[in-house]
Amino acid sequence: MQKPFNKILIANRGEIAIRIIRACRELGIISVAVFSDADRDSLHVFLADEAYHIGPSPSKESYLNYRKILEVAKTAGADAVHPGYGFLSENTTFAKACVDAGINFIGPTPENIDAMGDKISSKLLMKKAGVPTVPGSDGGVETVEEALSIAERIGLPIIIKATAGGGGKGMRVVRKMDELESAYRACRSEGQNYFANPTVYIEKFVNDPKHIEIQVFGDKHHNHVHLFERECSVQRRNQKIIEECPSPSVPNEVRLKMGAAAVRAAKQINYVGAGTIEFIFDNKTKEFYFMEMNTRLQVEHPITEIVCGFDLVKEQIFVASGRPLSFKQEDIHQKGHAIEARICAEDPVTYKPSPGVIRACRHPQGPGLRVDSYAYPGYEVPIFYDPMIAKVITFGETREEAIDRMQRALTEFVLTGIKTNIVLHKTILDHPKFRDGSYTTQFIEKNFEVIEPLLFKEIDDPMFLIAAAITAYNDRKSKDVRQLNITSNWKRTGRKLQLRT
Amino acid sequence: MQKPFNKILIANRGEIAIRIIRACRELGIISVAVFSDADRDSLHVFLADEAYHIGPSPSKESYLNYRKILEVAKTAGADAVHPGYGFLSENTTFAKACVDAGINFIGPTPENIDAMGDKISSKLLMKKAGVPTVPGSDGGVETVEEALSIAERIGLPIIIKATAGGGGKGMRVVRKMDELESAYRACRSEGQNYFANPTVYIEKFVNDPKHIEIQVFGDKHHNHVHLFERECSVQRRNQKIIEECPSPSVPNEVRLKMGAAAVRAAKQINYVGAGTIEFIFDNKTKEFYFMEMNTRLQVEHPITEIVCGFDLVKEQIFVASGRPLSFKQEDIHQKGHAIEARICAEDPVTYKPSPGVIRACRHPQGPGLRVDSYAYPGYEVPIFYDPMIAKVITFGETREEAIDRMQRALTEFVLTGIKTNIVLHKTILDHPKFRDGSYTTQFIEKNFEVIEPLLFKEIDDPMFLIAAAITAYNDRKSKDVRQLNITSNWKRTGRKLQLRT
Amino acid sequence: MYFEAEIKGRKYKVDVTEGRAAWKVSLQEEGKDWTHYDISKNDYKFAEEYVSFLFEGKSYLIDVIGQDTEYTVFARNSFRTIKIFNDEMLLHESLKKGSGFGGDEELKAGMPGKIIEIFAKKGDIVKANKPLLIMEAMKMENEMRASRDVKIKEILVKQGDSVETGAVMIKFEEPV
Amino acid sequence: MYFEAEIKGRKYKVDVTEGRAAWKVSLQEEGKDWTHYDISKNDYKFAEEYVSFLFEGKSYLIDVIGQDTEYTVFARNSFRTIKIFNDEMLLHESLKKGSGFGGDEELKAGMPGKIIEIFAKKGDIVKANKPLLIMEAMKMENEMRASRDVKIKEILVKQGDSVETGAVMIKFEEPV
């Protein structure tokens, strides 16, 4: 089989850069990593075939510096660029610049990105394609007063979103009128700071919904398919932390309806490559509304890869090289069950990021398990980027087996030196609302306010106290030992001196 | 679902002990590890829920000391014992002792083990069951003279095997008459040393055959199924190092014939649990002959788990608890392709074991990959046990993808401080005879006599020389630095003394 | 060696004696009786990266991080932060006023970051759970709130400042 | 700093100079010209467990083990054992006779093990590739054969002995 490309530059970092390096290596394609000052010791630099420095630590000056990245791509002789997710993955300027430089951009067309980049116009497009959408401000909201009046029209709760936002940034839910103003301002400021665009819009906030998304794929020959759903309702700070496939709440007929709608959406813009249509899902009525389309690979793509049995990154590469999709709709079936847990360097109680140096690190292994991680012992998690350091994905014949397996995997995951949310995941997996699949996007907010006791029930204190006490004892003792060494060194040196004289 | 057992003691060590610990944890069963002096720091001790010391390092005094192990099982309150493979897994006395002590032995019945334990009587049994067998000495061979006459009757090449032998021990191929005597003696001595039984027998050595084995499973309700074949022809020193499923050489009609024969074999002895029928396979005629039955779980069971989609260790546990098999023959299908590479602490050129302390150790991760390993940084591989420290298993939609993925996985496997056969595996996977599937059990012997150049082609010398030179430079420099420290310490101490006075 | 320890607000007296082959550790939670533990050194074993602790028949793989007065113990994806004071330190402590070890007269940075906005000024009284400032770290804006009703004594940072872990950002007056 | 190195039987002259920001390494294989390499220290970076070596556009994760005269370099699942001698050592070498570093007047144990059987006695002449003894390690019997025609000068082990890595088991007469 002839290689689709000779050399691919990966304009990203961390686990997704490594994920793409692996696909390249399996296809005999040379992989080129790029890194910022903070990332010289990042694992993606170690694992790539080639690696080039692109600038200072802040994203703006490195991973978002598309000119520099393009320059490196040319120097290295890459014939394609994979943007991963985040950073430049949905940046039209970059996509265009690649094409102009004769370098293949592994992702959707610039037109695709534009069509879906703006949440407001994309919503109108979807209405046109016959995809159900949510009531709200059909456009940007320029003043607090306007925001208030819309809120009164469609009724609380509402959600305010930065037009250019994403990944939980520039997004606030408002449940009381007096919270509206500060939320409105916060969204505008985050929109300005992270996406250089303060415009925000408002939507009816479907109360206690689920987040269900459909994976779609298109090629350059007008073929479009869906790879069924993922449920991503377990969120904290509006960021997904556990995803599963299939969803325990979507009846099969609804599943097929959602898939068909997603394919209509993709066809509407003649979408190329991997994309995801996110839906708000009302678990009582089983109604679903278009939320947004992510014109890129998703963090949680592995659970679809496992349940459907395809390598989505390789497929992206093939499609970008012009090949037709390697699968037709009728070839795609869900088999078994997969769950992903996002392991983040953060305090499991406050959700505050906890960057720092990793000490011991042993990843889970064994049957029914996939780990995509860039953690290693001695690695310092930098403060500049996303706190997610690893993804643990388990799969089994049944949902129950996949969950039990995840519990097993997390129990054997040794990661010390920094705080992580591993213990939070374990608590969630044991929660009746997760076990019975009835959980919604407000699951954590509602059930984990006083989480500490849950988190720490597993082991009682004496074991911890004894360990701390023995360590404190040794530390104290070692001080004396150091004293000793100095003296004995002094003696030795003393002798040396005598010999010399 | 009610738990089959409350607490299982695992009478084994290393990766298979860990494999069983994982199955237990996923089923909510408490796992009990046992360890010898040399294994206090072995990973299976760290991962188990409970761990007990059972004696000195030599297997005879620890992992083969069934009385001690049984005693621990009682103390710990285990209601079942899993023997893993090797050690006590095919020891009738132990199996009986467990049953007598009211502890469930997770494996075949003592009668099953006896029936297949003796290679000679088992061969006759198989003839009776209508399973094809190989011409040879229908019994033990007591003298060199007898051996010579049999060799003349059935013609060279022949293979001499210790009746009680296994795992490549007590086994010699004879191609020239003048090699026969020393080979005969060697087998007897190894049989005596390792299995306390010098008896050997002789068989026609099918020239340049393949090793194909069929996984079978039985329950306590007279149900027997097969889970298709594994090809294990890649061997060095008569030990498997790469296995794959399905075999590239077995036509489907032959596959079904072999499966049917294997099920007849299992039914003949009313076999209970997981077992494997090993066949000698003539790739020209596609004829197959019964070689032996392993009445236990195999090292290479994961490739069957992946391709057939069942957890064989959990199934062993369920069957032992009396449940009927969870799958019927018609539920069992092969999907995709899986390969296993056995990573051993040994010199890749001489195959000599290379025990020692592991320094850096980073296992491969990512899609289509399973790792069962007990290596970790700083772990000292003991000299007392089998040199296999890890199994890397890859799978894909096609055989080609599985092989490419294995290459990728091995390339990212960092394991330093000891010599390993990783680079040998990479060389094998690239060999045309492996790629086209035509390889046989003599593949390595025939194609890897002068292996060094192959092994080391990947990178040229300057990179290595520069690294060594810089290190030598630093070592030299650090000596001087140590001198410095002593003096400065001396100064500091000097000051201290002054202050005191 | 005698220590006083605090874990999750509960206080313990701790005594550690090292034998050739075993540790003797005694614990007394405030108002309860002493419990004595004999720990064979082979059951509390340093294995390169971790400590393998076989305790009361259970196998724990643990890691202990910290020094001086604060240790964090990791085990089975759970952890505890334990304050521990030896005789010397207890002396110092007794000199300091303020409600025990846990006392909190200031707002410290829990991680390195950048000050985005400050909501209070010197002299302000801020009610419990009301925002004091917004700090950015790892691309998230983290709102820091008052843990109790506080009167601002001094503000040591300004908007745009970058702060390191542990840096004091706001000092409060003594609780009234 | 000047070294002489040997890798897979080929000999090199090596010169290493350390700058503030870069290494200068020069290599000369016997009978060939010098090659000079400038290695930025940021391209030869110690990352906790490994060295990340960005060399001629390629990324290598390497580990170097050893000391004194022998280093083993691991990279991409491959490795090289390199003999390396600094000025001091070269002096000692020159005093020793025997054909270069690789010279082999004895049979050493490559790993710890137990002597199962010895096939030769003092004074015997053993042809190349004929067995000298069988040593057991990790449950395998390893037959040690003569690498060349040798005359046995001395046998330092007996059946049943346990030997450590590097222990000399048999000494040979000088090659004739």
Major sheet characteristics of chain C: 9 strands, antiparallel
The fraction of residues in strands of chain C falls at over 45%
Globular, elongated, flat, extended or rod-shaped: what is the shape of chain C? elongated
The share of residues in helices of chain A is 25-40%
What percentage of the residues of chain A does DSSP assign to strands (E)? Answer: 15-25%
> Largest sheet of chain C, order of strands side by side?
4-3-2-1-9-8-7-6-5
Low-confidence segments of chain C, ≥5 residues, pLDDT <50? 91-103
Largest sheet data of chain A: 8 strands, antiparallel
What is the rounded distance between the termini of chain C?
Answer: 38 Å
Largest interface: B-D, 53 and 52 residues
Q: Describe the oligomeric state of these chains in a short phrase.
A: heterotetramer
Short description:
Chain A has 501 residues and is of the alpha+beta class. Chain A has 17 helices and 20 strands. In chain A, 39% of the residues lie in helices and 24% in strands.
Characterization of this structure:
The complex is a heterotetramer, with two copies of chain A (501 residues) and two copies of chain C (176 residues). With 501 residues, chain A is α+β, with helices and mostly antiparallel strands. Helix content of chain A is 39%, strand content 24%. Chain A is built from 17 helices and 20 strands. Chain A has helices at residues 14-26, 43-47, 66-76, 92-100, 110-117, 119-128, 144-154, 177-195, 252-268, 301-308, 312-320, 399-412, 422-430, 432-435, 443-447, 452-456, 461-500; strands at 7-10, 30-36, 50-55, 80-82, 104-105, 158-166, 169-174, 200-204, 210-218, 224-236, 239-245, 273-282, 287-294, 337-344, 356-357, 361-362, 369-373, 380-381, 388-396, 414-415. Mean pLDDT of chain A is 90; it is low at 481-501. Chain C is 5% helix and 58% strand. The chains are: A alpha+beta (501), C mainly beta (176). Chains in contact: A-B, A-C, A-D, B-C, B-D. Chains B and D meet through helix 8, strand 20, helix 13, helix 16 and helix 17 of B and strand 1, strand 2, strand 3, strand 4 and strand 6 of D.
